[in-house]
């Protein structure tokens, strides 16, 4: 895929989310991965809960090992993620924010986290989600009132962005969100947040549109709506990454393949869209687990049991 894309857009990156385990230990999987992708996003390894289990304590081993693999295979790395409500260690979630003095102390701890992590990875990340899923769940348009919000107020994305820039001025910064793939209030809010962050001294290059399609019947991403979306962000001077696209197969593998291909090709044909990432590669290592934590095997990715699916073929043609 990456080689096909590079013929027309040498800078365009096609990536996938991955964990260290399968990439380092399953040779067939590694071959599938490297044979098709030019970039990776650590699926979990760079989330705060994994990087800093206790305040002031950092566990970089897994993320570093993943970076070593990426570099040995010449894959660009997209960092994921700094401020993310869902993936914080408890020390971070529980930082006090009741009084002015508490907020000051907690601010120092949070900035220290940003600086330590971004300095550690400096020079090795092409891009980074500085804020992930800022808005209230279920299509909300207000900022989640997480610890970043409680300590820094509604300008926290600008605070984080400036701290990231100080530690690594070259990493391309993104705000990543789900449910903002097509025009609507949630997308308006994301566009506004990115612009406002920059108006307050932030360094946001663009937005990540996650592109999870959980139900093709209700939340398929139509080409026209995505085209309009990309034009909107382009007009606002922002870049777009399709950052976590995956598509359920409940409507059949042909419809699923068409959706994968449509999202990739619409992105690829828009100069504002700089990369496309799929969230998972092979059903054997997918992130879909049911309520009992059992792996769901029916959810198709671009490979199934090591073999390319119709989705991958359609993406190659697209
Ligand atoms: C998911 C991972 O894929 C899972 O392995 C983990 O258990 C939970 O998080 N949006 C995001 C990603 O931004 O960080 C999430 O990743 C998927 C949804």
From TrEMBL:
GO terms under biological process: xylan catabolic process
Please list the residue ranges annotated as the GH10 domain. 1-318
Q: Could you name the domain of life of the organism this protein comes from?
A: Bacteria
Keywords in UniProt for this one? Carbohydrate metabolism, Glycosidase, Hydrolase, Polysaccharide degradation, Signal, Xylan degradation
Q: What class of enzyme is it?
A: hydrolase
Carries keyword Hydrolase?
yes
User: A Gene Ontology MF term for this entry?
Assistant: endo-1,4-beta-xylanase activity
On whether Signal is a keyword of this UniProt record, the answer is yes
Question: What is the name listed in the Swiss-Prot or TrEMBL entry for this protein?
Answer: endo-1,4-beta-xylanase
Give the source lineage, highest ranks first: Bacteria, Bacillati, Actinomycetota, Actinomycetes, Micrococcales
């Amino acid at each position: 895929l990456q080689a096909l894309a590079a013929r027309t857009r040498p800078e365009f990156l096609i990536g996938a989310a991955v964990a260290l385990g399968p990439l380092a230990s399953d040779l067939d999987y590694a071959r599938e991965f490297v044979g098709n992708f030019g970039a990776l996003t650590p699926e979990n390894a760079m989330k705060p809960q994994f990087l800093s289990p206790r305040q002031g304590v950092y566990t970089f081993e897994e993320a570093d090992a993943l970076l070593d693999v990426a570099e040995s295979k010449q894959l660009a790395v997209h960092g994921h993620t700094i401020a993310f409500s869902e993936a914080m260690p408890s020390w971070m979630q529980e930082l006090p924010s009741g009084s002015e003095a508490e907020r000051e102390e907690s601010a120092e701890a949070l900035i220290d986290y940003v600086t330590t992590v971004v300095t550690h990875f400096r020079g090795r990340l092409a891009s980074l989600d500085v804020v992930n899923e800022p808005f209230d769940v279920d299509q909300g348009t207000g900022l989640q009132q997480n610890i970043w919000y409680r300590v820094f107020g509604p300008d926290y994305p600008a605070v984080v962005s400036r701290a990231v820039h100080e530690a690594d001025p070259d990493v391309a910064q993104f705000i990543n969100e789900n449910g903002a793939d097509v025009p609507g209030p949630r997308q308006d809010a994301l566009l506004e947040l990115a612009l406002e962050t920059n108006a307050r001294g932030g360094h946001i290059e663009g937005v990540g549109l996650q592109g999870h399609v959980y139900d093709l019947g209700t939340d398929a991403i139509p080409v026209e709506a995505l085209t309009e979306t990309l034009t909107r962000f382009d007009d606002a001077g922002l870049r777009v990454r399709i950052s976590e696209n995956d598509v359920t197969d409940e409507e059949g593998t042909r419809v699923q393949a068409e959706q994968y291909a449509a999202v990739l090709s619409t992105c690829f044909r828009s100069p504002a869209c700089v990369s496309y990432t799929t969230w998972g590669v092979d059903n054997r290592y997918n992130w879909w687990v049911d309520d009992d934590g059992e792996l769901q095997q029916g959810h198709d990715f671009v490979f199934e049991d090591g073999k390319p699916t119709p989705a991958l073929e359609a993406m190659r043609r697209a």
